[in-house]
Amino acid sequence: MSFFVQTPRSVVMIRPHHFSPNADTAKDNAFQSEDAARTAKAIAADAYAEVTQAAATLEAAGVTVHLFEDESVTSPDSVFPNNWFSTHAGGHVAIYPMFSPSRRKERRADVVEMLKRKYRVQDVIDYSGLEYDGVYLEGTGAMVLDHAERVAYAARSNRCNDMSLERFCTHFNFEPIVFDAADAAGRPIYHTNVLMCIGSEVCLIGLETIQNVTRRKEIRERLEGSGRTIVDLSHRQIGAFTGNAIELQGRDGRVLAMSTRALRALDTQQRQLLERSVQIVALDVPTIELAGGSVRCMLASVHLSRRP
Predict the structure, then answer these.
(1) What are 259-306's pLDDT values in tens digits?
(2) Can you give the residue ranges of every domain in the chain?
(3) Is 253 left (phi over 0), alpha (psi -120 to 50) or beta?
(4) 101 by DSSP, 3-state: which?
(5) Which CATH number fits domain 3-302: 3.75.10.10, 3.40.50.720, 2.70.98.50, 3.30.450.20?
(6) What is the value of pTM for the model shown?
(7) Which end of the chain has fewer beta carbons closer than 10 Å to its terminal beta carbon, N or C?
């Protein structure tokens, strides 16, 4: 298996100037929470500072960060760009249909133009028109992609439609593996990337969230069959965003970026198992996590060849 197929060297981040948890998405995102102790202005300022520090920490580890500003007041979830676009080896970019109308404003031509300018982009496939048909697929939130094995893992939700998933997989040559997932309270999990992270040698996954026992066994066997070691996460750890991590290529090897909250939720054995394969880079983003996403959601990975 080629490590670099799964592990990008570069990411896109968005630094929000007016961040706030999005009331429109709270209906089906049980991971969102509120902080009545801080004013909206304080929350926005803290989120700005968290993204600034997270970008600097990743850069210090040798990851290239393309940092964009969002000064608008109408896109509260813009800090999560991995939902509206993804990039793929061979020079391909996908643009996705978003479930919440407020999130459709996050799509930015300047991000796509930067990718064309600095990387080799052959085509941009835009699925956003499916929004008019009520069909959604929120990028690498809705899908967790195994780039090496060409598998797209996807938990069914309002934000992941079977038809759009099939269309993506046909275009990009992935095999879809679809399942139903729920939290400890039985609520459907809104995005696959909060319960699953696929690295080069290790996979973090909340197997107990997968409702069908037979499907659960099939997914475990498929991941182990790819040569990866599974770190099975509990409902408590999924709730702490431990599954919302991403493996990146740093200056001195592979790093696993996750939040400080997520790292604290790992037990000693799990952490030691991960550290055999990667260096863990913890990013402190408690304000961002109020919006129901964490580090993986903040990083849109770049799987494109860099221009000289």
Answers:
(1) 999 999 999 999 999 999 999 999 999 999 999 999 999 999 999 999
(2) 3-302
(3) left
(4) helix
(5) 3.75.10.10
(6) 0.95
(7) C
